[in-house]
Amino acid sequence: MKPIQKITIVGGCGHVGLPLGIVLAAKAGLRVDLLDIDPAKVEQVNSGKMPFMEHNADASLREVVGKSLKATLDPACLKDADVVITVVGTPVDRHLNPTVGQVYHSIDALLEHMQDGALLVLRSTVYPGVTRLVYERLRKLKKNVLLAFCPERIAEGNAIEELVKLPQIVSAFDGEAMAAACQLFGKIAPTIIELTPPEAELAKLFTNAWRYANFAISNQFYMLAQSRGLDFYRIHDAVTREYPRMRSFAKAGFAAGPCLLKDTLQLAAFSQNNFFLGHAAMLINEGLPMFLVEQLRRHDLANKRVAILGMAFKAESDDQRDSLSYKLKKLLEVLCTDPYVPDRALVPLETAIRSADIVIVGAPHAVYRDIEIPEGKIVVDPWNFLPARELASATA
Ligand SMILES: NC(=O)c1ccc[n+]([C@@H]2O[C@H](COP(=O)([O-])OP(=O)(O)OC[C@H]3O[C@@H](n4cnc5c(N)ncnc54)[C@H](O)[C@@H]3O)[C@@H](O)[C@H]2O)c1
């Protein structure tokens, strides 16, 4: 393949596409077009503003936007691209089945514009077998385009740092495509790990399902201890302190967001619903909001005002997609607050704390670390995030 100079990222203004585009432009010196269908995001990116929170991204975006990077709605930008990376969403449907439509059906439209010999990289998290389907489609259409599947493994919010630190898994069905994908990611990643596409597809799903199951273990132990009036975190501290074999024992808390659950469900569908561990993890993690509510019933819940601090799906994020704080909100009559999430229904932090009898930490944003919650209020902090105080936990 000839040297790579120009990249188009499809889904380029999203949480994966935009940081990747910035890093490819800023660190690899490539020309990058971010193709998207959302005009508001395209406009915002071109004006040098990130459409979502991403650590250290604003300055990097301003460095490259209008120079080597631009966002666009026009698919003509595919024509002169040496590499097209597609990273559109791969949600599960309302029956919790994987959907491959957004990725698979968009391929023909991309191929229409792509030049001969270009590399097409699938970067969305895909259901196992999708890379093979796309490969066969290329052959059927007799299209001279190389194909690779190179999954994204960053933690949302830390992409700018992690893209240049994490090893990159690269996979392809033939040597030429593998070499081209290695050439591309060799420009930013310190290490390249080569797999076959079926291996790489499972590697990505294993990564997310493993994390999700780990959080489920902690959440299950949390519920087990708290429901017996025991403080989970005294036990967590005892078993992790100076004891290396428990180092990976996560804290409890809402395990949510757009990836972990849906990728666990993709794996469950792939195993023909014999992935019992994955389904158990889903029941546990999705059940935590209900557990907290049940624990609070002893406090005459019907006559108490509840506030949720943090509506994003995780700390230091404005992303509310699939956040369990919203599930908790549905179960209770509540005041909700978050410094980052754009939601008109939210109230200021001071109002939430002043008005509430019960305060629940939904997302442990650092700004909550030093808040003062007046004595007498019931505090529920499944993350054990708030500074040591006499916590009136859910079991109090
Ligand atoms: N969010 C993460 O932290 C993360 C991490 C690793 C992998 N992933 C995977 O990456 C993929 C994308 O996730 P995301 O969080 O970036 O989603 P996102 O919704 O933030 O971004 C997707 C973008 O694609 C655009 N889009 C949709 N259809 C399009 C089309 N036909 N043409 C051009 N643009 C289109 C949307 O407008 C949006 O800007 C998913 O498969 C996800 O599982 C996400």
Q: What's this, in brief?
A:
The chain is an alpha/beta fold and 396 residues long.
SSE sequence, one letter per element = EHEHHEEHEHEHEHEHHHHEHEHEE
What is the structural class? alpha/beta
Looking at how many chains there are and whether they match, the oligomeric state comes to single chain
- Total strands: the figure is 12
User: Which blocks of ≥5 consecutive residues have pLDDT under 50?
Assistant: 390-396
Instruction: Bin the strand percentage.
Output: 5-15%
The share of residues in helices is 25-40%
pLDDT averaged residue by residue: 94
What small molecules does the structure contain? nicotinamide-adenine-dinucleotide
**In what order do the strands lie side by side in the largest sheet?**
3-2-1-4-5-6-7-8
